[in-house]
Amino acid sequence: MYNSPSKSALLVMDMQNSVVSRFVDNEQALLPFQKAIEAARSHAIPVIYVRVAFRADYPEISSRNKMFAGIAGRAGSAAAPEAATQVIEFLQPRPDEPIVTKVRVSAFTGSDLEVILRSRQIDTLILSGIATSGVVLSTLREAADKDFALTVLSDACIDADPEVHRVLTEKVFPRQAEVVTVDAWAESLTN
């Protein structure tokens, strides 16, 4: 029902120190992410981490980019290789799990994600991340345009606005993806 594990990959997006610290105040909220990662690993589904980071002088950021223009002036934001851009300790990748670095909202923009997916013949993406209205929405739209089959793990997505999260997961995402809980997805892997 939720696609073949052999051609799937779990994307764990923007689960980096600078992002998580703005959206999550306790590790309890991160348990669905941990459960999804464990389910993927136990079923040999590749786990790919995605983070946003920029060079020290922020050459990737245009002053016309409303979302990112303010970052260039802030100390400790998303300039690589600062601790702010590293995946949070609670959800650390294994050495064989790629960490893809992007320079915009979508996991595809400015990254080698599509090259990794195509080289592994992955045609199905399982999406999780922060924020539902940011990286998850942008990645879902671009992945759908690239003809990937999609599943969104509704409880492994976090947004600052619960109503925006609800509207996206209940009304917008189902047009292009299966939307399920981590438990439902994990259970589908054993059937």
Strand content: 15-25%
Output the radius of gyration: 16 Å
Give the topology string: H per helix, E per strand. Answer: EHHEEHEHEHEH
Mean pLDDT: 87
Q: Which outline best applies?
A: globular
User: Main sheet, how many strands, which sense, barrel?
Assistant: 6 strands, parallel
Distance between the termini: 9 Å
Class based on secondary structure composition and strand pairing:
alpha/beta
Q: SSE layout and pairings?
A:
Blueprint lengths: L7 E6 L3 H7 L7 H12 L4 E6 L46 E4 L10 H7 L4 E7 L1 H14 L3 E10 L3 H11 L5 E3 L1 H9 L1
Parallel strand pairs: 1-2, 1-4, 2-3, 4-5, 5-6
Helix pairs in contact: 2-6
What does this structure look like?
- By secondary structure, the chain is an alpha/beta fold.
- Helix content is 31%, strand content 19%.
- It contains six helices and six strands, in the order βααββαβαβαβα.
- It has helices at residues 17-23, 31-42, 113-119, 132-145, 162-172, 182-190; strands at residues 8-13, 47-52, 99-102, 124-130, 149-158, 178-180.
- It has a six-stranded parallel sheet, sandwiched between helices.
- β5 (149-158), α5 (162-172) and β6 (178-180) form a beta-alpha-beta unit.
- The protein is globular and about 50 Å long.
- The N and C termini lie close together (9 Å).
Keywords:
191 residues; 6-stranded parallel beta sheet; alpha/beta; 31% helix; single chain
Quick structural gist:
The protein has helices spanning 17-23, 31-42, 113-119, 132-145, 162-172, 182-190, and strands spanning 8-13, 47-52, 99-102, 124-130, 149-158, 178-180. It has 191 residues and is α/β, with parallel strands linked by helices.
